[in-house]
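2 proteins. here.
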Amino acid sequence: MSDQSNTYSSTATGNRSILPDDMISVQEARRLILEKFSPLDSVSIPITEALNQVTTEDVVAQFDIPPYSNTGMDGYAVIAKDTKNASYSDPKKLSVTGYLPAGKIFNDTVMPGQAVRIMTGAPIPNGADAIVPFEETDEYLEKDSTKKTEKNEVLINVEAITGANIRPAGEDITKGTVVFNKGTILGPAQIAVLASLGLNNINVHRRPIVAVLSTGDELLYPGESYADGKIYDSNSSGLAAQIINFGGVPKILNIARDNVKSLTHLIREGVESADFLITSAGVSRGDFDLVKAVLAKEGHIGFWTVKMKPGKPLAFGTFTKESGAQVPHLGLPGNPVSAMLTFELFGRPAIFKMLGKINAWPRPLVNAISKDRIVNTDGRRFYARVVIEEENEIPKVILTGKQSSGILTSMSKATAFAICPSDTSGIEAGQMCEVILIDRENNYYGESTLTEKKGY
């Protein structure tokens, strides 16, 4: 570890250093944080484990998809002109010369007057240029058409069009095509395409390991017997869940007690074992708020106050591994709502950048009418916990309850954050406001109200 006691980083805001009492904006804090992160190294992993990860190289098709022309229907492979003028009143009779299930090849050639009984996905036999579905033959009326038949002749009731029900080779992808460019985020459909290309593994930016450290003598581990004067540590579990949700791998450390030795030991453990260190509590001005002191001694401090509510006491800096590699550190406030909200606003973009999702972190931002008065008391940007709903096709937001940074249940109910600017005393009921959507599954998505703002 480096020993850089009481050092501060210079910033793009000027040649001066950021001093401890300087409050910087949310946007500036995020900019300074993201400067310290880069996409992580590439790893090869099974495609079934690559959901939401980012490719580190182009994916090029090594063969056509489909690799051969095949049938899209169960039926008969025929020569289209043999069915000319066929109808239910005057069907065309063809000789059945073979049976072709999927996964097999027909080694002969379909000659005029002939048909091959064929199942969906099977290669088109040589000579055939159309598929007549069972429903358009007499077999559909005779028996279960899904089973093999010894039928020697078939009546075709509908005239076939050349190419009917045939999926050509390379219809989806042709050999040599760049299917996915480097930097593609892999969703379920992309992973299905990789499987269709025969790929079992894919090269992606690895998931970041994020160490989580809660601090405080008052904390109990969930599952411990309750004791007077104590509280259960909710921050570690909540932050770990956010890390998983954002694409990282959490590493929950033991609780650091309110002494320099305990905190230093556990910070060093987190630094050596992770790509990113998160601490909660210990960044304010109390007698036992020791994180800043240890950070100043063991690492480097960038800033520690942001002009926002909740979440003003937010520390950011770096530690150095024994190998010399830098590990960014985000010191979150101890109040549970403050910890989760600040990690949403700052930790999520950092994890996305490590994953290679450079510009994918912004949440949808909409304009909505507040149904409640949202009070802003002290000139900081205030993020109110709200739910958003549609009323007469207009999005509206409702507070989820008391907005104290200790009311964790109000966070559990929230599907969005309403933004109250720092230069206002609040948002009146009936007034329009900007809202960050944080719950994609249970939210309003009115296209007319969506904007493309990133400065929240």
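next one coming up
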Amino acid sequence: MLNYLQLKQYRENGRIEAKKSLGGLPKSIWETYSAFANTLGGYILLGVIEKEDKSLEAVDLPDPKGLIREFTALLNDPKKVSTNILSAGDVYEEDAEGKHIVVIHVPKADRTLQPVYLDGDPANAYKRYGEQDIRCDTADYERMAREAAVHTPDMTLYESLNLSDLKKDTIDRFRKRMEEVSPGHPLLTADTETFLKKTGCAAADGQGRLHPTGGGLLLFGKGWALRTVYPMFSLKYDRADRTTENKARLKACTYASQLPPEGALCENVWEFYETVEKDLILGMTFPEGSGTVTEEIRGALREALANQLENTDYFGVGSWVLKGEHKLIFNNAGLFRPEVSAARRGVSDPRNAILKRMFDLTDREHEAGGLAEIYLTWRAQGLAMPVIRQTTRPNVTRLTLPLHPEESRTKADRDYVRELAEDLIVFYLTSHGSARVRELADFLNMSDSAVRRHLEKLCSRNLVERIQEKNVPGRAGIYKLRR
């Protein structure tokens, strides 16, 4: 939420757009609506100007209610805009230091509704880059069209390739891992072709012949075959302590990293997962005095790696993992398909559904995990909060896992934890069923009063409810998620 009594503290950016609007509804409002809907969402402020020093200032609208009526009428006209993604309460009049402005909160559109376009023309769609609304190019449009499909990209059948283009030794290692996790699974007794077909890694053409799907290629494909479908495929793993010789080998590798310590080339996703798990997860260490490696930590790292690999856009710029001295970074092509706040609460919408299904088969904890598991584990271990950042040129998501304790957080870390507080409360209530203020304050390392403020906001949004305890006076009570 913005503080409208302190507009001067804000600047136009990727999430805020100011429009003077004294002459009526500006035509450019629709480009901004489309851009916010197709990117990360944002706020359009009518009756606000950007001054020379880039700060914002209200100018007082003569007829804010009229602007709201005009905007709402056009918003519901399919000839003007492809879809209305706003909810009740997303358009409202606001007092900004005694001046009347109109606020339009535009959420990120659900992927099935993107691209949000204008004037009946699907090519007339926009994305937000910094302070600018930029018309989508062909690559943007094609990416959004892929994302909109219920059929995820890794479900596509590739009839030009055969099952011989998959690496049998990699499939066998995957099945051995399955056996360790679920020794009685019925797929373990199936032959290779049946196994691939039943897991979605292969499918039949019109004549009944089996071919790899995108998921099968990504997980088990031979390098050359995989790159015929995903020419930009790139997975890299790096360590901060690498030698000059290792740097040169990494730079020379075009589609996958030569991974320390063996320098083995990974041709596909499962080989990458196995090698990174061995070096990063099983070989996990903390800086001296910063933390203790536990099974919970290793489980959270497996979750982070699996989430990265099943949510990567393999048609994008590539993904990498960095094992640093004081932090771990998981950087993948593509934005979260649900809102980040929803993903932190455990909402899942994987970009590659077959990959998610396969990782679920090899990790009994993964199916119920997600980002919520990572955040809760880091909090329980007393470590500084994980940080998620997304950029849109190119589309990239970066998860940073600090390896230093809570008390040594930077100011940026502390600000981020405040930003996350409500999501973390929902995490906690999801995991524990209910909690008192003191319990949440200990978990968040915040004061009771700060926690109460966040709980009040969650209650006002009907996400959380307070249950007064019998014979306990005052503000004491138990908080639960509202059903």
